[in-house]
Design a protein that fits this description.
Blueprint: E1 3-7, E2 10-13, E3 18-25, E4 33-39, E5 46-51, E6 57-59, E7 67-72, E8 77-82, E9 91-98, E10 108-111, E11 115-120
Length: 121
Amino acid sequence: QVQLVESGGGLVQAGGSLRLSCAASTRTVSPYIMAWFRQAPGREREFVAVVSWSGSTSYADSVKGRFDISRDNVKKLMYLQMNSLRPEDTAIYYCAAGSTRSADSRAYDYWGQGTQVTVSS
């Protein structure tokens, strides 16, 4: 079992930055693929970024060049550095862990409770 807890959300003006963190409570987080998803009101949950145990990353086109995903396997933490934020980035952000690297949320077995990010124009 893996329990995930996100933190770092909040309200920021357009063009600003936020860093989200995801803490994992498990014996070891190293084997897991970890990812960030987000869900805006009235919209389906969408993929944001994924990081493998080795540090290999992939991003959604909408955040490429603005967001940076990273992980610290020793501290069992995952991060999402979000720069140049836009109002359309407003959503609840979820961290997820699983065994398969995918942009499909159904591939992930464990989810956090989410953290709200609001970007004002």
